[in-house]
Amino acid sequence: VFLFSLFLVGTASFHGAGVSASFTSFSTIHVTKNKDGAEALLNWKSTLNNHSRSLLSSWHDDNPCNFTGVACDDFGAISHLNLSYLGLRGTLDGLDFSRLTSVVSFELANNSIYGFIPSSIEIGRLTSLIELHLPLNNLSGSIPSSIGNLTSLSVLNLFQNRLSGSIPSEMGSLANLTRLDLGYNKFFGSLPSEFNKLTRLTYLQLHNNDLEGEVPKDVCLGRSLQNFSILNNHFTGPIPTSLKNCSTLIRLRLDKNQLTGDITDAFGIYPHLNYMDLSHNHLRGELSWKWERCHNLMSLRISNNNIFGEIPVIFGRMAQLQLLDLSSNNLSGEIPREMGNLSMLLELDLSNNAIMGNVPIEIGFLSHLTHLNLASNNLSGLIPMQLGSCKSLLSLNLSRNKFQRSIPPEIGNTQFLGILDLSYNILSEHIPGELAILKNLEILNISHNSLFGYIPHAFDDMLALTSIDVSYNDLEGPLPNVKAFNEAPFEAIQHNKGLCGNVVGLPNCNSIRIKKRLGARITIILIISLLGFLFLSCALIVVVIINHRQRRIIKRKNNERANDLDFMSILRYDGKVFYDRIIEATEGFDSKNYVGEGAYGIVYKAEISEGQTFAIKQTLSSQEDTEIVDLVSFEREIQALTNIRHRNIVKFYGFCSHPQRCFLVYEYMERGSLRTTLKDDQRAIEFQWDKRISVVRGVADALSYMHHECSPPLIHRDLTSNNILLDRDYEAHVSDFGTARLLKPDSSKWTAIAGTIGYIAPELAYSIVPTEKCDVYSFGVIALETIMGKHPGDHVSQECSSSAQAESTMLKDVLDQRLSPSRLGLRDAQDVILITKLAFKCLQDDPRLRPTMGQVSRELCFQVPLDMPLSAVSLEQLHKIK
């Protein structure tokens, strides 16, 4: 027993000595590593600038565990470096990573570190590195391929540097990577296919770079991805197929790329998704019912694509939705009344679509709504007064629709409203004084309507206003005495009936009041004089009887003289005064004010003293070889034409007649006619496809209005590219009504064929009774001329179009080559194909086969996707498309 005990004691002593020796050796290793780490950090500190070194004043001995930003593990080895937000300036070149092998986390965010990422940052040296954070610095160059050796890395954050080059394929070796942020750099090229191997990624940010190519289809192969953003790159191709079943998604941003394909069934059901942005791509298809199954979705943006169809009714069940942006697509139908159930909605943008019908009154239930934009649609009817219940509104834009009647005074209840745009509608009646309650209103645009009366005096208290536009209405009276009106440019108040104020171009209100008071005094004097005359009239009656015959002769002569100087009031000016101003402004119709010439008159530019500019058409009259005009009928037509109000018809103010001259007064268009624009190469290049498409639509809308909304219908009769005028924004305005007549359907008062060769319908060769279908034919010619850049010539004939030569003619070859048709975007290409198809329909020889302008106008509002690219479309195929 004694010997056995002695053996145990000896054995224990032997093992204890061994453990002690091993621990001593282990400690020695860590002490050595710490000294190496301290020396590496001190050497790097010496390479930083003076200010940075002062921030690291605690770095001075060989124990790094006491250094600022340094943490050690239980064994005293450096495990964490966190030097973020210290304002350090320098490079990483002086840091020897080979002496920091125990570091688990390296954080250097938001400093001024510049230069390259050293290639020495790899597994052979940083064996334990799990997190590498270098965001918000000035690092440049490319990511070293050696970074792929950091196989333990879980987090890599290089956000917002100046890194460039392609993303190395070696990053596909980082199998443990869960978070990768390369956003806000200058990376280019395509993503390596090895990205499909990163199956553990939950957070992938590639936004704001110059990356291109297709997004790897298996980006969510591991079904772990939660936050994915490729915003603002140049990616092309379809939506990655793996995203459809990526049910873990919480936030997805694919916006501002060039992605294509049909999204109708490209996405699945995401129970955790709260943010989705697909805006500014080339996606097509219809809105999916599956969005309603994403119960946590708070923000959905799909603007600026080619989405068509109607807004699904089930969108009204997306209870958590706070932002819905479907603007700039091809959506049609009506706004579902179920949208009023979205009680959490803050922003709704459906602008720039083809949505029609009334705005549902249920929108007024959206008490939290801050931004509502329904601009540039085909909405009509009344602006619902229930919008006044949206008391949180900050911005309301209903411009460029067909809203009628009055502005609802209930809008004054939206006390926080800062922007109100109701321009380009058909609103009439007075401006409600309740709008003055909007003390926070900064921007007000009610231009291009038919509002009349005075601007409410209460507007004097709207001190927050910074920008106003009340132009193109029938307003009168003084402008409100507030900075926004007093400093408004004349363009923002022009084309009204009688506004006055301290704005250049407007008359002074005081002078108007003086004239009114003077007129009242004169009236009193006249009344007194009249009473005196009554007392004297008995004494003078004998003289009156004696001279009665002589006075009748004098009166007849005076009437004849007055008829010779018969002026019509224009813009509420005295006819004679306005006539004199026109003569003065045109310097007697001097050639230097010449603008152009049509078949029925010469056009001059006249800028009167009030600052308004008119187009004056001097008609061909008072000449021996011209037909005598029936002035009574002519004046009746003029009165009717002055009442026409449409955004795409040149506003007609009236006329002045004189034995020497007779001229018509029109709104002046800055860019002249469509024909002169197309003939000038430089102007034609500025006249891009989207503007040309808009011009065709505008002409169609104007003719539809003339044919279907005027009673009796108005036929233009001489529609050419010479009387399609363009304003500064290239919006089309149909002009030259000097040749048009108001015509009832059963009327046939024409005495001669009228029109311009190349634009007149073929049936006028054997019939002198024009119909609306003659204008339809002329529209077809103008539509082709607009997209071809010149008169279409033989292409207006179907017989020619069906010839062997035309069968092989491709559409891209007849388009205006000055605009490089091959570069047409998908949406513009579809519009051009649609316009060409409709133009050929309008050019049918048989007028019964031509569509009405109402049908053409409506069809131009919709964009039907075609299965073939522009380069593959021939003129023959367009004749066959129904």
What can be said about the biggest beta sheet? 18 strands, mixed
Q: Which regions have little confidence, pLDDT < 50, spanning 5+ residues?
A: 1-29, 554-572, 621-629, 742-752, 798-804
Question: What is the CATH domain class of one domain?
Answer: Mainly Alpha
CATH topology of one domain, what is it called?
Transferase(Phosphotransferase), domain 1
Helicity, in percent? Answer: 25-40%
Membrane topology: Single-pass type I membrane protein
GO biological process, one term: post-embryonic development
Subcellular location: Cell membrane; Membrane
Protein name: non-specific serine/threonine protein kinase
In words, what does this structure look like?
GO terms for molecular function: ATP binding; protein kinase activity; protein serine/threonine kinase activity. Residues 589-862 form the Protein kinase domain. It is a single-pass type I membrane protein. Residues 1-21 form the signal peptide. With 882 residues, the chain is α/β, with parallel strands linked by helices. Among the domains are: 116-262, Alpha-Beta Horseshoe (Leucine-rich repeat, LRR (right-handed beta-alpha superhelix)); 508-541; 575-667, Phosphorylase Kinase, domain 1, CATH 3.30.200; 674-880, Transferase(Phosphotransferase), domain 1. It is built from 17 helices and 45 strands. Helix 10 (689-708) runs antiparallel to helix 11, helix 10 packs parallel to helix 15 and helix 10 runs antiparallel to helix 16 (853-860). The model is unreliable at 1-29, 554-572, 621-629, 742-752 and 798-804 (pLDDT under 50).
